[in-house]
Amino acid sequence: MLTRRSEAPFSGTFVSEFRELTKRIFGAAADESWLDSLKWRLERMPDVSVFVAEADSRWTGFKAGYAIAQDRYYSWLGGVDPDFRKQGVAKELMSQQHIWLCGSRFRLLETHVEQDNDAMIQLNLKSGLNITGLFLKDGKPYFVMQKRL
Asked: Taking residues 53-65, what's their average pLDDT?
């Protein structure tokens, strides 16, 4: 498995691959409106970076984020193609993101996780993030998780 980091501005080919992988990962939840909102973030948020995992030139997973303050990074979205789950792809992508962040200007990593997403919560905890808060979004409870870098 190969992982690489890409930064904005993203090519049309990159955005297309990102959309296709997102559809495979999120299925019916990845409707056109949601996919358009993802594209908007890729194009408009500050300091966007996307770590991509590939196997045989096929995108297998990604971990994306962006700056939310001068020294604060929001790990926004990630996922692994269902055909490649349970193979350490998410762990590797998160590890690469954290290594990169430790060498950057960012001093705090933050993410939000739905409270029923046990796999992501466990991976975040094992990767050094702590639960620091909670909130409701569209009626769903989320944890705020953070890690000092």
From this structure: 95
Q: Which helix (H) or strand (E) holds 128?
A: none
Token output for 83: 């055909």
Q: Tokens 């996307």, residue?
A: 50
What are the start-end ranges of the H helices in 6-140? 12-26, 32-44, 89-102, 118-126
Are 18 and 50 in contact, with CB atoms under 8 Å apart? yes
Q: What domains, with CATH codes, occur in the chain?
A: 2-110 (3.40.630.30)
What is the rounded CA–CA span in Å between residue 26 and residue 94? 18
Phi, psi angles (nearest 5°) of residue 57: 65, 10
Q: What is the pLDDT of residue 16?
A: 95
